[in-house]
Design brief:
Radius of gyration: 21 Å
CATH class: Alpha Beta
CATH superfamily: Amidase signature (AS) domain
Number of helices: 15
Strand order of the largest sheet: 4-6-5-10-11-9-7-8
Shape: globular
CATH topology: Amidase signature (AS) enzymes
Largest sheet: 8 strands, mixed
Oligomer: single chain
Helix content: 25-40%
Strand content: 5-15%
Number of strands: 11
Number of domains: 1
Bound molecules: glutamine
CATH architecture: Alpha-Beta Complex
Length: 486
C-alpha cells in the first residue's frame, strides 16, 4: 500500500520494521503538501528543511533503538499552536510576521515523543469561523469537492488529513472546530475534556471553551496522539492534574452493554434527511455490537448557540485586547499618537469576523448590558451542563450527527453570520459543558462525507475512542479517500 494511505499506527510499525526511513516518509508527505497547496490552500507555512533535518535525526534514533512512540512520524500543527522559531499566524494579518519564541505544550510534548512537524495548517482567523473562509490566507478547499468549504476553524488540518497530505494534525475546538471540519472532510476528530490537554501556547480565542485535540484518519491514531499530548501542565492554570490513561490499550474493550443516548434535540428539523439516514445506520452498527439505544432529551440544548455567541465573543474581546500594536503583531505605520496606533493597528490587523466578535463581546460585557446578556448566558450555560449531567446518569455516551448538512459551497454563507453560526448547532453544547466529544466518518451523502458525533462525560476520552474504534473495525468509512488524492 502507498505510505500516504497508511495510518499513523501502521507507519510507526513500518518505520520500526525498516520498510522505509523517516526521511523517505517525511519527503513523501512534504511533496504531497507542496503539490496540493495551490489546489487546497491547507497550509500557511511548509517547513521542508527543518522537517527533513528532524527526520534524519529520527532515523539515527531508530537505528540505535532509541526514540519515543512517535519517532519519525509526520504531523502538522494548526497555526495557532506556538512553534519555537517558526511563524505562528493564527490565520491573521495581525500575526503574519509573528515568530514564536517558544513551543506550545502540545507541540513540545509531541516533539519529545518523536513526532516531526511538517507544516503549519491554515485556519479561520483566530479560530473564529465554521468554514475556513475567514483566514487572512484565503479559504481552504474541501478535498472531496474543491468548490466546497472544508468546515472550520481547523479547516487546514481536516482538509490535509482528508486528502492524506499528512497522516495527522493538531486542531482546536472552541465550539466545534475539530469535530465540524472532521465531519465535512471525512476524518476522525477528538476534542478532549476541558483541562485534559494544556492550552499553554495555544493562542487564546475563548479561554473557558478552547481545547486542543487532534484530527486523524482513525480513532486508533487519535488514541496514539492523545496519550502523548494529554496531561497536567503547571503553565496552564485550568489544566487538570489527573493521570492519563493508556488510550491505546483501551481501544479494544468490548462494547456489549454500552448505553447510548440519542439526543432528541439533535434529530431536529434542521437535520438533512440523508445525513440523518447515515447517522441512524451507524447507530444500527452499534446495536449489532451489543450497545443499547435510548432516546434522551436535553431541554436546554437549543439555547446553546445563543449562549455561546455571547460567552465566546465576550472572552475573545478580552483575550484579543493584547493585540495593540505595541507588544505583538501588526503595527500601523507612522502613528500620530497612542490612540491612533491602537486604532489603526487593530483596524488593519483584524478581519471582519474578528472585529464583529470583539464588538459583540465588548457590548455584552459593558456595564449596562452585562446582566442582561453575559450573566444570563452564563446561567444558561450552567443549565446546559446540568442537562448533560442528568443524561449521563442514564447513559454512557450520547450520539447524533456532527453537523446538520454535508459541506456547503465556498461563499454560500459568508454574507449571513447567523446562518454560518448555526452550523455549530450540534457541537457547541459539549464546549459549554467542557465535555469530550468526537466525530467519526459514518457515510457519504451525494459523494460528501458526514460525521457521527459521540459525546461522553468528563474524562471519558478512553470510552469515546473505544466506541469509535469498534465502529471503525466494523466499517470502512474512515478509510475512504477522495479519488484524486488516493
Ligand atoms: N464556529 C465556531 C465559532 O466561529 C467555533 C469555532 C471554534 O471552535 N474555534 O466560534
Amino acid at each position: 500500500m502507498k505510505p500516504h494511505l497508511l495510518s499513523l499506527t501502521q507507519l510507526a510499525k513500518g518505520l520500526r520494521a525498516k520498510e522505509y526511513s523517516s526521511v523517505e516518509l517525511v519527503r513523501g508527505f512534504l511533496d504531497r503538501l507542496e503539490a496540493h497547496q495551490p489546489m487546497l490552500n491547507a497550509m500557511v507555512t511548509i517547513l521542508r528543511e527543518p522537517a527533513l533535518a528532524a527526520a534524519q535525526t529520527a532515523d539515527r534514533d531508530l537505528a540505535a533503538g532509541r526514540g519515543g512512540p512517535l519517532t519519525g512520524l509526520p504531523i502538522v500543527h494548526k497555526d495557532l499552536f506556538c512553534t519555537e522559531g517558526v511563524r505562528t499566524t493564527c490565520g491573521s494579518h495581525m500575526l503574519d510576521n509573528f515568530v514564536s519564541p517558544y513551543d506550545a505544550t502540545v507541540v513540545a510534548k509531541l516533539k519529545s515523543a518523536g513526532a516531526i512537524t511538517l507544516a503549519k495548517a491554515n485556519m479561520d482567523e483566530f479560530a473564529m469561523g465554521s468554514s475556513n473562509e475567514t483566514s487572512y490566507f484565503g479559504p481552504v478547499r474541501n478535498p472531496w469537492n474543491t468548490d466546497l468549504v472544508p468546515g472550520g476553524s481547523s479547516g487546514g488540518s481536516a482538509a490535509a488529513v482528508g486528502a492524506r497530505l499528512v497522516p495527522a494534525a493538531t486542531a482546536t475546538d472552541t465550539g466545534g472546530s475539530i469535530r465540524q471540519p472532521a465531519a465535512l472532510c471525512g476524518v476522525t476528530g477528538i476534542k478532549p475534556t476541558y483541562g485534559r490537554v494544556s492550552r499553554y501556547g495555544m493562542i487564546a480565542f475563548a479561554s473557558s471553551l478552547d481545547q486542543g485535540g487532534v484530527i486523524t484518519t482513525s480513532a486508533a491514531d487519535a488514541a496514539l496522539l492523545m496519550r502523548e499530548m494529554s496531561g497536567f501542565d503547571p503553565n496552564d492554570s485550568t489544566s487538570v492534574d489527573r493521570p492519563v490513561p493508556d488510550y491505546v490499550a483501551e481501544l479494544d474493550a468490548p462494547l456489549a452493554g454500552l448505553k447510548i443516548g440519542l439526543l432528541k434535540e439533535f434529530f431536529d428539523k434542521g437535520l438533512d434527511a440523508e445525513n440523518e439516514k447515515r447517522v441512524r445506520a451507524a447507530l444500527a452498527v452499534y446495536e449489532k455490537l451489543g450497545a443499547k439505544l435510548k432516546e434522551v432529551s436535553l431541554p436546554n440544548l437549543p439555547l446553546s448557540v445563543p449562549a455561546y455567541y455571547v460567552v465566546a465573543p465576550a472572552e475573545c474581546s478580552s483575550n484579543l485586547a493584547r493585540f495593540d500594536g505595541v507588544r505583538f503583531g501588526h503595527r500601523a505605520k507612522d502613528p500620530r499618537d497612542l490612540m491612533d496606533l491602537y486604532k489603526r493597528s487593530r483596524g488593519e490587523g483584524f478581519g471582519a469576523e474578528v472585529k464583529r466578535r470583539i464588538m459583540t463581546g465588548t457590548y455584552v460585557l459593558s456595564a449596562g448590558y452585562y446582566d442582561a446578556y453575559y450573566l444570563k448566558a452564563q446561567k444558561v450555560r450552567q443549565l446546559i451542563a446540568a442537562d448533560f449531567k442528568r443524561a449521563f446518569a442514564e447513559v454512557d455516551v450520547l450520539m447524533g450527527p456532527t453537523t446538520p448538512t454535508p459541506a456547503f459551497s465556498i461563499g454560500a454563507k459568508t454574507s449571513d453570520p447567523i446562518t454560518m453560526y448555526l452550523n455549530d448547532i450540534y457541537t457547541i453544547g459539549a464546549n459549554l459543558a467542557g465535555l469530550p466529544a468526537m466525530s467519526i466518518p459514518c457515510g457519504l451523502v451525494g459523494g460528501l462525507p458526514v460525521g457521527l458525533q459521540i459525546v461522553g462525560p468528563h474524562f471519558s476520552e478512553g470510552k469515546l475512542l473505544n466506541a469509535a474504534h469498534a465502529f471503525q473495525k466494523e466499517t470502512d468509512w474512515h478509510s475512504r479517500v477522495p479519488e484524486r488524492f488516493s
